[in-house]
Amino acid sequence: MKTMIAIAPMMDWTDRHCRFFHRQLTRRALLYTEMVVADAVIHGARERLLGFDDVEHPVALQLGGSDPAKLAEAARIGEAFGYDEINLNVGCPSDRVQSGTFGACLMKTPKLVAESVAAMKASVKIPVTVKCRIGVDDQDPEPALDTLADSVFAAGADALWVHARKAWLEGLSPKENRDIPPLDYPRVYRLKARRPNEFIGINGGIQSLGEASTHLRHVDGAMLGRAAYHTPGILAGIDAAFYGAPAAAFDYAALIDAMAGYAARHIERGGRLGHITRHMVGLFHGLPGARRFRQILSTDANKPGAGPGVMKAAFAAVDLSKAAAEAA
């Protein structure tokens, strides 16, 4: 796998509308779904859970689960839907995954993770990857991460993305688990030095493309999470900074037009404008008019009958001269 920037899977955030929006900002970054539980993929409403727009490629499906046979079946279904990668969640610390004994709980059972990876690899032709923490609870991250990595790569995993902090399954909420355990980037760098021929990506607390670039001196990939969601404008620089695209001022008017057209199609199918605009409120963070842009999207977009014109009205409130000056 080549060096890459990815947008992290984030529960309740990286749905298909968010991914369509992010794809307007970067054509090359790898996008991820929210985690979808294998049982839901097998037995649930698949189009609602797995459907996506072709423009989202490259896009990966993240699965949650701990039954190798079910994960293999869910992976086959995901491949048939057209996903470019299947990723196994070994890092989410929520109560939901603890009750199901998957997510970050799997850090304690690397053999089971390896069996799951092997089963998925045997069932699909697309890459199978893993996203994990450096450890959980009282585990020592040195042997814990090495053991997990050795196990999944021996099973055929194509990449390992590491959220560079522990998860505490007892005593911390999922939100606290994203902030309180200290980040340990050097631990991930040591893993890459130890496994130089394997793809190792890093995640956790990366706030800018500059920080991502710094990490890429040590590892193969950098994954943006909350910074990508809350300040999505930073994504507009990815293709030029990391994939060789020509540097140019970003065409925000074209983005708004694309999102308005997408919203019109969504509304025609019975959806609401707010399903889409909730992901866009941070787009112009730091620019004059950004506050008014947020206000319009947060209020008018959720009124009955709201249509794509709300996006255009919000965009009209933004002064892009500062962004243009910075790009010049």
TrEMBL record:
Domain of life, source organism: Bacteria
Pfam families, per database record: Dus (PF01207)
Keyword tRNA-binding: yes
Ranges annotated as spanning the membrane: none
Molecular function in Gene Ontology: tRNA-dihydrouridine20 synthase activity
Active-site residues, as the UniProt record annotates them: 92
Alphabetic keyword roster: Flavoprotein, FMN, NADP, Oxidoreductase, RNA-binding, tRNA processing, tRNA-binding
Residue intervals of the DUS-like FMN-binding domain: 7-303
Family, similarity comment: Belongs to the Dus family. DusA subfamily. Belongs to the dus family.
Name of the protein described by the UniProt record: tRNA-dihydrouridine(20/20a) synthase
Reactions mediated catalytically: 5,6-dihydrouridine(20a) in tRNA + NADP(+) = uridine(20a) in tRNA + NADPH + H(+); 5,6-dihydrouridine(20) in tRNA + NADP(+) = uridine(20) in tRNA + NADPH + H(+); 5,6-dihydrouridine(20a) in tRNA + NAD(+) = uridine(20a) in tRNA + NADH + H(+); 5,6-dihydrouridine(20) in tRNA + NAD(+) = uridine(20) in tRNA + NADH + H(+)
Xref: SUPFAM superfamilies: FMN-linked oxidoreductases (SSF51395)
Function: Catalyzes the synthesis of 5,6-dihydrouridine (D), a modified base found in the D-loop of most tRNAs, via the reduction of the C5-C6 double bond in target uridines. Specifically modifies U20 and U20a in tRNAs.
CDD domains registered for this protein in UniProt: DUS_like_FMN
Cofactor entry: FMN
Residues annotated for FMN binding in this entry: 9-11, 62, 131, 163, 203-205, 225-226
InterPro entries (alphabetical): Aldolase_TIM (IPR013785), DUS-like_FMN-bd (IPR035587), DUS_fam (IPR001269), DusA (IPR004653), tRNA_hU_synthase_CS (IPR018517)
NCBIfam families: PRK11815.1, yjbN
EC number per UniProt: 1.3.1.91
Site residues (Interacts with tRNA), renumbered to this chain: 89, 175, 178, 291, 294
